Amino acid sequence: MPWFQIEGDALGEEQTRGAVTRLLEEARTRIKRDLRRVLLLPPDLTRAHSGAGRITEMLYEGLAGSEMAVIPTLGQHQPHTEEENRWMFGSIPHRIIYPHDWREGVTRVGTIPASMVAETTGGVADWEIPVDLNTRLMTQPWDLVINVGHVVPHEVLGFANHNKNYFIGLGGKESICASHIAAAVYGIENNLGTLVTPLRACFNWAEEKYLGHLPDVYLQIVMRRDKDEKLVTSGIYVGDDLETYLAAARASRKQNVMTFDKPVQKIVAVMQADEFRSTWVANKAVYRTRMALADGGELLVIAPGLERFGEQPEVDALIRKYGYTGTERILRLYRTEKDLQEIAHGTAHLIHGSSEGRFTIRYAPGHLSRTEIEGVGYEYADLSEALTRYAPEHMAEGWNTMPDGEEVFYISTPSAGLWSTKAKLDSPARREMVTA
User: Fold this and answer.
1) How far is it, in rounded angstroms, from Cα 408 to Cα 77?
2) For the whole prediction, is pTM greater than 0.85?
């Protein structure tokens, strides 16, 4: 059971600080240790809108006198600059914020057996998943490890946060590659909004087997939109077990999933420049709306910060070479092309980011050319024209009718939710998984 949870229409900073204080008090009682050395594991800047950075700063303030380290759970995302750390984590000194090195900074702690992967995925994936985790996490003596994060629908694990912080956020290249391609072949639309996906089930097993010795706790937040369509914190869930995650995920499923009676012809989504600079992360706009879009419909992604495709040069090159060209083609090439096999998480991303020819994905980028956008299989829109027609300061969250009569559904923060038709969300193929 969770240590505690706080729910409300809009939890303010005082309530959040109270939760931080209570977490530290309960940790001292439950773990029965002086908190001399504490590791804080917040999300990276792509989740900055959740307020997780400020919560991490509150924990830092509440642990004054302890020796602390902070490792943003980057996965294979770009490490933060000192300026970005200051923007997200406030007064926490840059010198104690350590970038996760997914290639060289990990230690092998075990494997998830191929038999388990096959069983959970119904046989569509049948390979083992190595468990490589951040060396600082696994080899240093911690009195407490605090995972901070935002529980929201997610394309790989059904919902983000909880032990995703470990196995993806602090995972190694082989772990990330093997797990992402397993989730991809299982199907992104089977994963989205599912409480316990096959990969999540594998991670739950691995957490119990390999991380049971860690004195850790999760602080998970859930957000919703208020009557003014502003994102506010509606729940804080604190605990060290699976039920803590499930409580938060159930709340997120109620509050962060919007359903439509019929498919939507056009969605306009904005990916903020200070958080989303590659299609690797900006494609959350694709993932979270794909189940709502009509056949022949259009998704327009306004991305003023977009400057690259991948988070690393080799992934960027992979995307430019093969493009977002559909599951069938990418999986066929995956069987023979060594670069796709070597960077399997990139292969999974190519699958996730394709519309499968069902709807148009059109990008209005800040720093990429028409040739570059069209070269990966997307359509191009001029950023200034898109911002003039769909000016964020004038668009209402949800349905908008433009002066010429065009009807569009506008989403200012696609990464904070999931949009789907009722038929897709409630399909018999998904029902058993969603209620697991």
Assistant:
1) 32
2) yes
